[in-house]
Design goal:
The complex is a heterotrimer of chains A (about 775), B (about 160) and C (about 325).
Chain A lengths: L15 H5 L15 E7 L5 E7 L1 H5 L3 E6 L22 E2 L5 E7 L2 H9 L2 E6 L6 H4 L20 E5 L2 H7 L2 E9 L11 E6 L5 E5 L4 H14 L7 E5 L14 H13 L3 E4 L2 H7 L6 E9 L5 E13 L9 H10 L5 E10 L13 H19 L3 H7 L19 H12 L1 H4 L6 E11 L11 E7 L5 E5 L8 H13 L6 E4 L17 H28 L6 E4 L2 E4 L6 E3 H9 L8 E6 L18 E12 L6 E11 L6 H20 L5 E2 L2 E2 L18 E6 L21 H13 L10 H20 L1
Parallel strand pairs in A: 1-12, 10-11, 14-15, 18-19, 25-28
Antiparallel strand pairs in A: 1-5, 2-4, 2-6, 3-5, 7-15, 8-13, 9-10, 9-12, 13-14, 16-24, 17-18, 17-23, 20-21, 21-22, 24-25, 26-27
Chain B lengths: L2 E7 L2 E7 L5 H8 L18 E4 L2 E4 L12 E3 L13 H8 L9 H14 L5 H8 L10 H11 L5
Parallel strand pairs in B: 1-5
Antiparallel strand pairs in B: 1-2, 3-4, 3-5
Helix pairs in contact in B: 2-5, 3-4, 3-5
Chain C lengths: L4 E3 L4 H10 L3 E4 L5 H6 L7 E4 L9 E3 L3 E4 L4 H6 L1 H6 L1 H7 L5 H6 L2 H6 L8 H6 L3 E6 L2 E6 H4 E3 L2 E2 L6 E7 L6 E8 L10 E10 L17 H7 L6 E10 L6 E2 L1 H7 L6 H14 L10 H24 L6
Parallel strand pairs in C: 1-3, 2-3
Antiparallel strand pairs in C: 4-5, 5-10, 6-7, 6-10, 8-9, 11-12, 12-13, 13-14
Helix pairs in contact in C: 11-12, 12-13
C-alpha cells in the first residue's frame, strides 16, 4: 500500500474550480424555455378543518396558468413510507406546513401574488404538540382514521437479561435526557423542475440525494396520476447541501409534477428560506429514559433505554431512526444485556426526517451523558470506565454486529493525550474536560432491500476515462474519492478521470448518499469496475508485448513490463490498437457492489454494516458561572476511518460535522409554539458562524478495514455524533452541573448553577 | 417605470434597463445572468449574495439596484485574470479544501477579497470577523479560514 | 419583487422637499432594515428617498467633541481610531452589529431611527450624551438622544424630518466607556441584553498614568483593590440598557447611586443590583425575562469595570 500514487493523497476537490468561479449550476440557476414558476399555499393552523377553499380569483390573475388543490390529486395519492401524506391536503390540515393549494404562473412574482388571492376559511381544532400528551388515551387524534397517535412501528430490541443484570450490578444510574428539533440549514434551498416530453415521460431536475429511490417514488406517483409505465429521468443539479434533508421526496415535488402535467409546461419550484425552515423535515426531538449499570470493577452490565420520538403529523424517515439508534444502544462499548423500546408518536408538529447521524446523536447524548454519571457513582475516571469497556476488533456485539476493524482505544488515547486529560480533569476551577465516543455504520447500512451501487467505466482512444457512478455528490467529495480510486487502480493521472454522477439515464442504481456509505459502497463498486477494465487492458497489452498479464503494470498512463522496463507502451496507444484493429473493440466495464451486510431480522438483530466507524471526541470548556455561557477552549475529534483516501476532504467532514454538533449542543433549536415555527430564519436559528469556531483538531486514526476500498470506512456522519455529550460532560467537570436537555443554553446552565448553589447551601446548613 | 442605469461590473461599463424595485442580486442573476452570486436567504442573514461595491463587501440581496449607478461592482465572475487564471483566493479555496457544496463559496470569497484588499496581513480574528456574515453549513469554516490565510500570506504570485 | 420609485437627492434640502411632495414615501439609508421590511411585506412604500448620495453626509469630525454625519456607517465608526480611544463604547457596539456586509452599509442614524430596543449603538450614544441633529421642512433642531426615543419603535421625528447626524460632547482622559452585547452566537446576532457604561473618574491627588502596577496583565479587579487607598472617585456616570424596556433606557437610580462615590468592585455590585431592579425585561423567543434581568446585573458590573479599566490603563499606555 505504501506505493500508492493517488489514494491517501491530498487531492483537490474535482468540482472546486467550477464552484470557486461561480460556474457550478444549482437548481436555483436552471432555466428551461417556457418554464413556469410554482408556489404553494400552506395552511394557517396546526390543526383545522378547511371550511372553504376558493381559488377563483387566483385563477383569473393574468399570468396564472394553473391552480390546483387536493381535488386535483388523482386516486387519493399519498407518499411517504406509511403512505400517510397527500401532496395537497383536503378537508383538514394537521400541521402548519400542510400544503392546501398550489399555482403555476409565468413568473415567480405572479405565482406569489396568486397565492394571496386564494380564499380559505378554517375552523380551528385542538392540536396536540407534546408526544407524551399525544400518547395518552383520549388525546385528540392527528389522523382520525387511526385508533391511536402511536405509530405501528414496534421498535424493540432485547439482548440478554437486563432484569437479572440489574440485580447483579454494583452500580446503577437512571436518568432522562431530551433533545430538540434541529434542521439541516442547507445553504441552497430546496427546489426542482418537472418537465414532461410529448410521450408523457418525466424529467426531473432535482436536488435529491437518493436519485434511484426518488425515481421509484415518481414512477409510483405517475402511475397514480394515470401515467403508468412512463419513464422517469432524474438529472441532479449541483446540490447546495444535503445532510439528510434530501433523503425523502417532498410534497412540492409531486405538486410540480401535477402542475407540469396540467399545464404541459416545465414547472419550477424554489423554496424561500422561510419555506426551507418550516416546510422541510428536521431531526426529531426525543425523550430518552436510560439506565446503565456496571460491576464493582467498572465492567458494564446492562443498558436499558426507553424512547419517545415526536414523529410530527406525517411519516418520513424520522420514524425509522430507532433502527440506527439501536446501534449505539446495543454496541457502543461492550454491554452484554440490552433492552431498547422506542415509540414514534403523531403530533400536529412538523414531520421529522433524516439528518446527519440519523438518530445516533440523540441516542449517544443519553448514553454518553449517563456513562459519566455511572463513572462518578462507581468512583472511576470517566475515561477509565470507557477504556475498560471499549470496543475491540473481532467482537460480536449483542445485536450481532461483527466488529472487524476498531480503533476506539487509539482514538481515546489521542484525545487523552491532546487534551491533557489527566492534568485538566476535575480541577473544579470553572474549566473542565469531557469526552464521548461513537459507533456508526462505516461499511454501508442495509436498511433497504439493496445497499448496492453500480459503476460503469468506459475508456476512449486517448486514455481518458469516463466513470458513471450511482453515487451522489452533495458536497462531501464522493466524486473526487471515486476518481482517486479509479485513477489508482488504472494507473492513470486523476485529471484523466471524468466522473458522471447526476443522471439516472446514464448512471447505474444506488440507494443514495446516506449512512456514510458512499466511500465504502460506491468506492468498492468503482474499485471493482476499475479492476475489471484494468485486467482487460493488461491482457491486451501483454499480448502485444509478448508478456504475461501478471507481469504487467500501469503507471502514469503507461503500460510496462515489471521485468523489463524497456517494454512499455502508452495506455492510449494500447487502446487505439485494440480499437482500430479488425474486429476492434473499445473497453468498458461495469460492476455492481452490494455489500455483504444483513437486514435486521424480526428481533432487530443482524450485521447491519460490513464495518463500523469509531471515534472519540474530547473537549475542554470554560463555563462563565455568572452568565452560564460555555466557551470551548479546545476540541479534539479523533476518528477511526479505516484509511483516509483523501485526508483533506476527510478532515473537512470532521470539521463540518464537529461544528454542526457544537451547534446542536449549544445553540440550535427550532422553537415551536403550538405547531408554529417561531425562529425560521438565520438570525434567530443559531447556526454557528465563523466566529463560533473553537480551536479544533481533526485526528485521523487508520485501522485498515479489510473490506473497504484501500482500507477505508465511512466518515460522512460521525463528526457530530458524540459532540453534545462530550460538551455536557465537560460542563459537568467544570462546574458540577448536569444538563439533560439540548441545547445547553446559558439559561439552563445558569439555572442549574443557581439550583446547585441552593442545594449546597441547604446541605451545609443541615 | 423602467430606468436605464450605467455601472461598472467586473471592470466593464454596463448599461442595464432596470425596475427601481429590483435589488442588485436580482439584476445580476435574472437580468445579466451572472448566476455565480447566490441567494441563500434574501434578508442579509447568510452572505451567499455578497459582492464588492467600491471596495466593500455588501449583501446584494438588500442593495437597491439604483444605488449601483455609477459604482464599481465586482462579482465572483470578475475575479479570474483575463488569462483565465484563478485569483489567489480561488486557488487557495481549491487547494485547502475550503469548498464542499459550494453554495456559500462565491459570497465567502468576495468577503475574503474585500478583507485582504484592505488588510494584507489579516489575523485569524480579522478573518473570522469578516466572514462571520457568510454562513457555511458544510465545512465548519476551518479550511476556509486556512485558505484565506494562505491567500493573504504570499499566495499572490 | 416589490414596486417602488427610487429617488437619489444630493442635498438634505432636496430630500426633505421630496418627502413633502411624495405620497407614501420613506427615507432609506443603508437599507438593511428598510429593504428587509419591504421584502417581508411589513411596509409597502411607493417611493424610497435615498440618503446615500447626500453630499458631505458621511463625515466624522473631531472638534468640540465629535460630529457624526447622518450617512456614517458602522464600518466607518469601527475604522476611526479616535472614536475607539475616546468613545470606546460606540466602537464596541458598532463592531458587533450584524456582519461586516451589514456594517458596511448600515448607518448609525438608521440604527437609531428604528428605535428598536435592541439597537446596538443606542446605548453607547445614550451614555455618551449624544444629541440628535434633525432637519425638516421647518428647519433644523438638535435634541438629546434620550428625548428622541419616545417608546417602542417611536422617535421624535415629525413629517418630513430626517436625522442628519449626532453631536457628542468632548470627554477628558479620565473618562472611559464600554458596551457589552450579550448574545447566543459570537456574530450575526441581536443582543439578549446590551449594557453601555461611561464613567468619569476623579483621582485623589495623584496623576493618571501608566504606573508599573497598572501595566501588567493583572485583572482590573485586582488593580482596583490595590488602589483602594487612592480613593478613586466616580465624578460622573451613565448606564444604559438595551432590550430590557420598550426602548433603550438609562438607569438613573443606578447612576445616582454611583455618582460621587469612591469606587470599588463591591460598590459596582450594588449598582448592578439597582440596575437589574430597574430593568423591565420580557420573555421572548430570544431570551427569558429572568435571565435578561440576571444579565443586566452581571454585565452592568462588567461594563463599569471595563470602563474604569480604560481610564486606568488606556490601550496606548500598555
Amino acid at each position: 500500500m505504501s506505493d500508492l500514487t493517488t489514494v491517501g493523497k491530498k487531492i483537490t476537490k474535482r468540482d472546486a474550480p467550477l464552484k470557486v468561479t461561480g460556474g457550478a449550476l444549482y437548481i436555483q440557476d436552471m432555466k428551461i424555455p417556457g418554464m413556469l414558476y410554482g408556489g404553494i399555499l400552506y395552511g394557517q393552523y396546526a390543526h383545522a378543518k378547511i371550511l372553504k377553499l376558493d381559488t377563483t380569483r387566483a385563477e383569473r390573475l393574468p399570468g396564472v396558468m394553473a391552480v390546483i388543490t387536493a381535488a386535483d390529486v388523482p386516486n387519493d395519492f399519498r407518499f411517504g413510507i406509511m403512505k400517510d401524506n397527500p401532496p395537497l391536503k383536503g378537508g383538514r390540515v394537521r400541521s402548519t406546513r400542510d400544503e392546501i393549494a398550489a399555482v403555476a404562473a409565468v413568473s415567480a412574482e405572479i405565482a406569489a401574488a396568486a397565492l394571496e388571492l386564494i380564499e380559505v376559511e378554517y375552523e380551528e381544532l385542538p392540536g396536540i404538540f407534546d408526544p407524551l400528551e399525544a400518547m395518552k388515551e383520549g388525546a385528540p387524534l392527528v389522523h382520525e382514521e387511526m385508533k391511536s397517535n402511536i405509530l405501528k412501528m414496534p421498535w424493540k430490541l432485547v439482548c440478554g437479561d437486563v432484569e437479572a443484570a440489574k440485580k447483579e450490578s454494583a452500580y446503577v444510574v437512571s436518568d432522562t435526557f431530551r433533545t430538540q428539533w434541529v434542521t439541516h440549514c442547507c445553504l441552497g434551498t430546496s427546489g426542482c423542475i418537472a418537465v414532461f416530453d410529448t410521450g408523457n415521460n418525466l424529467t426531473m431536475y432535482s436536488n435529491t440525494q437518493i436519485p434511484s429511490l426518488a425515481q421509484n417514488d415518481y414512477i409510483e406517483a405517475l402511475a397514480a396520476f394515470g401515467l403508468k409505465g412512463r419513464r422517469v429521468r432524474i438529472i441532479q443539479c449541483t446540490i447546495g447541501g444535503g445532510f439528510g434533508s434530501k433523503l425523502d421526496t417532498y410534497a412540492y415535488e409531486y405538486i410540480a409534477i401535477l402542475l407540469a402535467m396540467k399545464t404541459r409546461k416545465p414547472v419550477k419550484f424554489i423554496f424561500s428560506r422561510e419555506e426551507e425552515f418550516f416546510a422541510t423535515s428536521p431531526r426529531q426531538c426525543s425523550i430518552t429514559k436510560i439506565s446503565q449499570g456496571c460491576d464493582k470493577d467498572g465492567r458494564l452490565t446492562f443498558r436499558e433505554v426507553e424512547m419517545v420520538l415526536d414523529n410530527g403529523a406525517y411519516t418520513s424517515w424520522g420514524a425509522t431512526t430507532p433502527s440506527v439508534m439501536m446501534m449505539p444502544i446495543s454496541s457502543l462499548y461492550k454491554v452484554p444485556n440490552i433492552k431498547y423500546v422506542a415509540q414514534c408518536v403523531y403530533t400536529n408538529n412538523t414531520y421529522s426526517q433524516a439528518m446527519r447521524g440519523y438518530g445516533n446523536p440523540q441516542a449517544t447524548f443519553a448514553i454518553e451523558s449517563s456513562l459519566d454519571q455511572l463513572a462518578e457513582k462507581a468512583g472511576l475516571d470517566p475515561y477509565e470506565l470507557r477504556f475498560r469497556n471499549a470496543n475491540e476488533p473481532g467482537e460480536l456485539t449483542p445485536q450481532n454486529f461483527q466488529i472487524t476493524s476498531c480503533g476506539m482505544k487509539e482514538c481515546m488515547a489521542e484525545v487523552v493525550k491532546r487534551l491533557d486529560w489527566k492534568g485538566k480533569k476535575g480541577n473544579g476551577n470553572g474549566r473542565g474536560v469531557g469526552m464521548a465516543s461513537l459507533i456508526h455504520v462505516g461499511g454501508g447500512a442495509r436498511v433497504y432491500k439493496s445497499d448496492g451501487c453500480g459503476t460503469i467505466i468506459k475508456m476512449d482512444d486517448r486514455g481518458k476515462v469516463d466513470v458513471m457512478t450511482g453515487a451522489t455528490e452533495i458536497g462531501q467529495g464522493s466524486e473526487t474519492v471515486i476518481a482517486q480510486i479509479v485513477a489508482e487502480v488504472l494507473g492513470v493521472n486523476i485529471d484523466d478521470i471524468n466522473v458522471i454522477n447526476n443522471d439516472t439515464d446514464v448512471c447505474p442504481w444506488d440507494v443514495g448518499a446516506h449512512a456514510s456509505r458512499t466511500t465504502f459502497v460506491a468506492g468498492n463498486s468503482a474499485l471493482g469496475a476499475a479492476q475489471k477494465i484494468r485486467e482487460k487492458m493488461l491482457a491486451v497489452a501483454a499480448q502485444n508485448m509478448g508478456e504475461a498479464p501478471a507481469s504487467m503494470d500501469i503507471k502514469n498512463g503507461v503500460v510496462f513490463s515489471m521485468q523489463d522496463k524497456e517494454k512499455s507502451m502508452p495506455l492510449s496507444k494500447v487502446l487505439r490498437k485494440v480499437h482500430y484493429s479488425p474486429g476492434g473493440k473499445m473497453f468498458t466495464a461495469e460492476h455492481f457492489y452490494d455489500p455483504p451486510n444483513e437486514n435486521f431480522n424480526k428481533e432487530f438483530k443482524g450485521n447491519l454494516s460490513v464495518s463500523y466507524a469509531y471515534g472519540v471526541h474530547g473537549v475542554e470548556v470554560e463555563v462563565d458561572r455568572e452568565t452560564g455561557q460555555v466557551k470551548i477552549l479546545n476540541y479534539i475529534a479523533a476518528h477511526d476511518v479505516g484509511k483516509a483516501i483523501n485526508p483533506m476532504l476527510l478532515e473537512g467532514q470532521i470539521y463540518g460535522g464537529g461544528l454542526m454538533g457544537i451547534g446542536y449542543a449549544l445553540g440550535e433549536t427550532m422553537i415551536y409554539e403550538k405547531g408554529h415555527l417561531k425562529n425560521g430564519n438565520f438570525l434567530d436559528y443559531k447556526m454557528p458562524t465563523a466566529k463560533d469556531v473553537p480551536p479544533v483538531q481533526a485526528v485521523i486514526v487508520e485501522t485498515d478495514e479489510q473490506a473497504g476500498p484501500f482500507g477505508a470506512k465511512g466518515i460522512g456522519e460521525p463528526g457530530l455524533v458524540p459532540t453534545a455529550p462530550a460538551i455536557a460532560n465537560a460542563i459537568y467537570d467544570a462546574v458540577g452541573v448536569r444538563i439533560r436537555d439540548l441545547p445547553i443554553t446559558p439559561e439552563k446552565v445558569l439555572r442549574a448553577l443557581q439550583e446547585k448553589a441552593q442545594a449546597d447551601t441547604g446541605r451545609s446548613g443541615a | 417605470m423602467k430606468r436605464e442605469i450605467t455601472f461598472k461590473l467586473n471592470n466593464e461599463e454596463r448599461k442595464v434597463e432596470v425596475d427601481p424595485g429590483w435589488t442588485l442580486l436580482y439584476v445580476l442573476r435574472e437580468v445579466l445572468e451572472l448566476t455565480g452570486t447566490k441567494e441563500g436567504c434574501g434578508y442579509g442573514e447568510c452572505g451567499a449574495c455578497t459582492v464588492i461595491i467600491d471596495g466593500r463587501s455588501v449583501n446584494s440581496c438588500l442593495y437597491p439596484i439604483l444605488e449601483a449607478e455609477g459604482r464599481a461592482v465586482t462579482t465572483i465572475e470578475g475575479l479570474r485574470a483575463a488569462s483565465g487564471e484563478l485569483h489567489p483566493l480561488q486557488r487557495a479555496f481549491v487547494n485547502e479544501g475550503a469548498v464542499q457544496c459550494g453554495f456559500c463559496t462565491a459570497g465567502m470569497i468576495m468577503s475574503a477579497k474585500a478583507l485582504i484588499d484592505e488588510n494584507e496581513k489579516p489575523t485569524e480574528d480579522d478573518i473570522k470577523d469578516n466572514i462571520a456574515g457568510n454562513l457555511c453549513r458544510c465545512t465548519g469554516y476551518v479550511q476556509i479560514i486556512d485558505a484565506i490565510k494562505t491567500a493573504a500570506g504570499g499566495g499572490r504570485t | 419583487m416589490t414596486r417602488f420609485e427610487y429617488h437619489k437627492p444630493h442635498t438634505i434640502k432636496e430630500a426633505i422637499g421630496l418627502m413633502e411632495s411624495l405620497e407614501n414615501a420613506k427615507f432609506i439609508a443603508g437599507g438593511t432594515d428598510v429593504m428587509v421590511l419591504i421584502k417581508r411585506k411589513k411596509i409597502a412604500p411607493a417611493h424610497l428617498i435615498s440618503l446615500r448620495n447626500i453630499n458631505d453626509f458621511s463625515s466624522i469630525d473631531i472638534g468640540d467633541g465629535l460630529q457624526i454625519g447622518g450617512g456614517v456607517t458602522h464600518s466607518d465608526i469601527v475604522a476611526n481610531e479616535f472614536i475607539q480611544k475616546r468613545y470606546s463604547a460606540l466602537t464596541d457596539a458598532a463592531g458587533k452589529v450584524g456582519s461586516r456586509q451589514i456594517r458596511n452599509v448600515a448607518t448609525v442614524s438608521g440604527n437609531i431611527c428604528n428605535a428598536a430596543p435592541s439597537a446596538d449603538t443606542a446605548c453607547p450614544l445614550l451614555v455618551l450624551d449624544a444629541d440628535v441633529k434633525i432637519a425638516g421642512p421647518k428647519g433644523e433642531r438638535q435634541i438629546p438622544l434620550d428625548d428622541f426615543f419616545l417608546g417602542a419603535g417611536r422617535v421624535d421625528l415629525g413629517p418630513g424630518e430626517v436625522v442628519t447626524g449626532f453631536h457628542l460632547p468632548p470627554f477628558g482622559l479620565n473618562t472611559g466607556s464600554a458596551y457589552i452585547k450579550h448574545t447566543r452566537r459570537q456574530a450575526m446576532d441581536l443582543p439578549m441584553v446590551g449594557i453601555a457604561v461611561r464613567v468619569t473618574i476623579r483621582i485623589g491627588g495623584s496623576e493618571i498614568g501608566c504606573k508599573d502596577a497598572f501595566c501588567t496583565i493583572d485583572s482590573i479587579s485586582n488593580i482596583l483593590r490595590r488602589l483602594e487607598d487612592e480613593e478613586l472617585r466616580c465624578e460622573d456616570v451613565r448606564i444604559a440598557m438595551g432590550v430590557v424596556a420598550p426602548r433603550p433606557v438609562r438607569t438613573r437610580k443606578a447612576e445616582a447611586a454611583l455618582r460621587g462615590k469612591v469606587i470599588s468592585e463591591a460598590l459596582f455590585e450594588e449598582i448592578a443590583e439597582i440596575a437589574a431592579a430597574e430593568a423591565q425585561p420580557r420573555d421572548s423567543i430570544r431570551g427569558e425575562a429572568w435571565y435578561r434581568r440576571e444579565m443586566v446585573k452581571v454585565l452592568t458590573k462588567r461594563a463599569i469595570l471595563i470602563s474604569v479599566d480604560r481610564v486606568l490603563r488606556p490601550d496606548d499606555m500598555i
